[in-house]
Design a protein that fits this description.
The strands form two sheets. A three-stranded antiparallel sheet has the order 1-2-3. It has a two-stranded antiparallel sheet with strand order 4-5. The protein has one domain (18-114, 124-215). The longest helix has 32 residues, at 124-155. The chain is mainly α. The two termini are 35 Å apart. A hairpin with a 2-residue loop joins strand 1 (3-6) and strand 2 (9-12). The protein is globular, with a radius of gyration of 18 Å. It has helices spanning 19-40, 47-52, 56-83, 94-105, 124-155, 158-178, 186-193, 195-215; strands spanning 3-6, 9-12, 15-18, 87-92, 114-119.
């Protein structure tokens, strides 16, 4: 993957990212990694577990699971939007990122890091595919974290197992949540394009989320 720089931004793998966009993606990645780390230890009540683990390792797990899940979700929207000839850039919502961190301190989390804003003319089908790209990437990441979980279980490595579990749990939850057909969420745009595509994608992600996250509590084990 080639990378070229310019005073205004950076071109990565054929996509141009402005300096502001790269900064916003970095801020969102860091904030969400920290927020989910705090959420999984139970907020303020779990600070002792966080400190006992040395802080750095738990945050690294958060960045490599929740942070990556959100980051690639947004980049997927951008990739498909650019494919359809759009000018597309991610913009972080600093207020919502602050809310994510603050809510995680209380033991729950509400995360809406921002959005990819795109402009240009698109058909309803193209708009729907742009919206579907984010949840679709989360489902793909869920599958990619499965071998990580298997490797951790096989080797008896608790940290690798935890990364696999949280990678699966967070991605399947994000896919299901973003496909809810409400407000600015992706699901509303997908449904407006094709009710069949929306129903199939939402059903798969929702069932997986209910079974794996709420049924088996996947991702909530481990030392932190």
């Amino acid at each position: 993957m080639g990378t070229n720089t310019s005073p205004r931004g950076r071109r990565i793998g054929g996509l141009y990212f402005s300096g502001t966009e790269l900064r916003d993606l970095l801020v969102a990645w860091l904030a969400l990694g920290v927020a989910f780390t705090l959420f999984f230890v139970g907020g303020i009540a779990g600070f002792d577990r966080l400190l006992a683990a040395g802080v750095v390792l738990p945050v690294a797990v958060g960045l490599s699971t929740a942070g990556v899940a959100f980051l690639l979700h947004e980049v997927a929207h951008k990739v498909v939007a650019v494919h359809y000839g759009q000018v597309a850039e991610f913009r972080a919502d600093t207020g919502m990122l602050f809310l994510a961190v603050m809510s995680s301190l209380l033991g729950f989390i509400f995360a809406a890091p921002g959005a990819v804003h795109h402009r240009g003319r698109v058909t309803p089908g193209e708009h729907g595919r742009i919206a579907l790209a984010g949840p679709a990437v989360n489902l793909l990441l869920m599958l990619l974290f499965a071998p990580v979980l298997l490797a951790g279980l096989t080797a008896g490595n608790g940290i690798v197992t935890l990364v696999g579990e949280r990678g699966i749990a967070i991605n399947v939850f994000l896919a299901a949540f973003n496909l809810v057909p409400y407000g600015p969420l992706d699901g509303k745009t997908v449904m407006n394009w094709s009710r069949g595509v929306w129903a199939a994608s939402f059903a798969v992600s929702a069932v997986l989320a209910v079974v794996l996250v709420f049924g088996y509590g996947l991702g909530f084990g481990g030392p932190f």
